[in-house]
Amino acid sequence: MNDKLVNVGFQMGAVSLGLGAFGGTVDLLHACRRGYEAWGGLSGLDQDLAVLRAKLVLQQGLFEQWQRDWYNFAVTNKVSVEKLRLLKEHSRTVEPALDSVRNLIDGMKALRDYAATGQTPTGVDRLKWVANEIESSKKTLNEIESLLAGLYRLLPPRSPNIEAAQIIISMSSQQESSDAVEALPRPNPRPQSFLEH
Hints:
- This protein is mainly α.
- The protein has one domain (about 1-185).
- It contains 8 helices and no strands.
- It has helices at about 1-15, 25-40, 45-70, 80-105, 110-115, 125-155, 160-175, 180-185.
- The longest helix is centred in the middle third of the chain and has 29 residues, at about 80-105.
- The radius of gyration is 19 Å and the shape is elongated.
- It starts with a helix and ends in a 14-residue tail after the last helix.
């Protein structure tokens, strides 16, 4: 009975912090995940697109681990209430960063569509367009990595990311082959948390 009262107390603490304030953040997290998943589902790509896809899959693994550490937890003790306080304190920093990440991923949609269908926009020189899009996407990847690195410094991941470690090991042992990345199991579905819709 006493444990139930303590748990209710922590839940009340979470409510007092204003969980509704995280609705926009959670929407952005879902939007980023959908953008990454669209790339993750591609296969049979040429070398440049396969490397680009592998980098995005790696980013996705790190991003999802960070999300699990910071946005998928139950409010059961003082530590979890303190995490809520930190999230609320940094929400004005986290949301614009996530919004930028989402926009950057969405900005690679034309190249992703080409990777999925092999079709370029009509009236363009195919080889030149693909080369320009790949070069632009490399810059976009650097911008995303910079934004995410900032988020990871602000709210450091708390637990090791076994999936990302497996990808790094596979990539280095296969030397520029994305086959190893495609063969790895997809991350497990995220556990339900108090912040999910």
